[in-house]
Design brief:
- It is built from eleven helices and 13 strands.
- With 334 residues, the protein is α/β, with parallel strands linked by helices.
- The protein has one domain: TIM Barrel.
- One of its GO terms (molecular function) is dihydroorotate dehydrogenase (quinone) activity.
- Its EC number is 1.3.5.2.
- It catalyses: (S)-dihydroorotate + a quinone = orotate + a quinol.
Amino acid sequence: MLYSLARPMLFSLSPERAHELTLSLLKSAHKIGLARQHIAPKPVTCMGIEFPNPVGLAAGLDKNGAYIDALAAMGFGFIEIGTITPRPQAGNPQPRLFRIPEAKAIINRMGFNNDGVDQLIENVKSSKFKGILGINIGKNADTPVENAVDDYLICLEKVYHYASYITVNISSPNTKNLRSLQSGDALTELLETLKQRQLELAEQYHHYVPLVLKVAPDLTEEDIEFIANQLLQFKIDGLIVTNTTLSRVGVESLPYGNEAGGLSGAPVFEKSTECLRQFAKRLNGQIPLIGVGGITQGEHALAKKDAGASLVQIYSGLIYTGPSLIKDCVSAFN
């Protein structure tokens, strides 16, 4: 109710300004105890972790882990922060975030704007959150794609001690050539190298932190087959399906519909869910799946589960619906 009253004011601002203001207000509300939403537990065990409920926050909303406590109070079963890179970077020039309310959609070309992995770690250390925290890692824009594995290793090593699981983001369309890491020898080298380092870190810390891959929805059947085989070969612990899409189906005739960047929200639901279904078919329960993309109501979360997801994540739907979406999704995920 409160969000429905605040939304017109927030939508009168530029999307990026509204994003910043919302997080600031949420943090202030949390400090005085007004941001808490009670959600009955619905435990789910996935990747060897017990999640209090199956609905998480997708990466991108809290890139630097500066609002973890306030976001957790909303009732998420888990929080994913990032995408983080080894060094701070400003991201792409503004404007770079566009609402398409007629389609409950968002286009972004943020470009991994973040304060760097060291600042994220300081933010995590200063939070009081004791729940499930995913940390999403990427590469700096000025790191050549052939050297991308070096950036992922830096981030993996630095966040390992602080993460419940670590997501390897190779599917954002807003960092040049990043999606090329989803195929061929580049993916093989990346997964092999990161898996080896993960096992070394598990021995060093006497604690195993699952490694998860996040993929795009814009994959062919051959791509899905190849990625699935790679995941199985290197025993990757989980797969997030999917990131944003380059497709403009459903928004091409709307204002901002042809802006460059990744499309999220309602128009990506069918494409993302079909991709999820295809991965579930090929992985056959051997690797758990996290469904994300286009969830704007509880029934969408259930559809992701029916397509093979053990957990789901939301972000764009939250912008249009508000915190009640979390409770709706948990209730529907029976």
